[in-house]
Structure formats: structure tokens, C-alpha cells
Amino acid sequence: MPTYVILSRVSPEAYSEPAEFKKLAERVSAEIKTHCPGVVWKASYATLGRFDVVDIVEAGDPKDIEKVAMIIRAHGHSTTETLLATPWKEFLAHI
After folding, report:
1. pTM of this prediction?
2. How far apart are CA 95 and CA 57, in angstroms?
3. Is the domain covering 3-94 a CATH 3.30.470.20 domain?
4. Minimal CA–CA distance to 69: which of 20, 42, 46, 35?
5. Is residue 68 over pLDDT 90?
6. How far is 57 from 86, CA to CA, in rounded Å?
7. For a tag on the chain, would you pick the N or C end, based on fewer CB atoms within 10 A?
8. Which residues contact 55 (CB under 8 A, 6 or more apart)?
9. Tens digits of per-residue pLDDT, 29-64?
10. Looking at residue 12, what is its pLDDT?
């Protein structure tokens, strides 16, 4: 199953207190689980720098990843950038 990296930046207007961010994340997660059952979450990281969150996911259908990104944008009040990730050894084998 293809692996994707979803990079998200949360809008400063999305929450006013840090505790609200946890509720926001829970709401987004619930929406994704409900509407994108074919997506397998591998890992999530909070990051410092250009993006706030890095998610590593797998999905057999790119349309599922499009839906995940739209849910993150709509419910998470975020911008996203999605990358298709190829395992390094696989990449080297194809060049």
C-alpha cells in the first residue's frame, strides 16, 4: 500500500487555548476514521518549524488521501501539503 506524508499547518485562529487544540485534533481524527476507513495511520508527529504536524499514512486509493486532506483543512482549520513517499531501497531499485 502506498505511503503518504501529510504536512499540516494549523491556523492560529483555530484555537485560543492549548487545551482546545487537543479537542480539535480529536474531532479531526474522528472525522477521518468515519469517512476514510481505508486509510491506515502509521505515525503522527508534532514538529517545530514550517509545519505543526507530520502524519505518515498508507492508503490504497489516492482519493482517500484527498479526502483526508480536505477533512484536515475543513475540520482542523489547517493548510496541508501531501507527499507520496517511496521507500529508499525501492526508489534506488527503480533508477
Report:
1. 0.91
2. 25
3. no
4. 35
5. yes
6. 12
7. C
8. 5, 6, 8, 41, 43, 44, 45
9. 999 999 999 999 999 999 999 999 999 999 999 999
10. 86
Identity at 84, one-letter amino acid code: L
Whose grid coordinates read 485560543? 16
CB neighbour class for 36 (10 Å; exposed up to 12, middle 13-18, buried from 19):
buried
How many CA atoms lie less than 13 Å away from 86 in the CB half-sphere? 8
Q: Locate 55 and state its grid cell.
A: 502524519
Domains of the chain: which residue ranges? 3-94
- Whose cell is 480539535? That residue is 24
At 47, the amino acid letter reads T
Residue whose C-alpha cell is 499547518: 9
Rg (CA), the chain: 14
End-to-end CA distance of the chain: 20
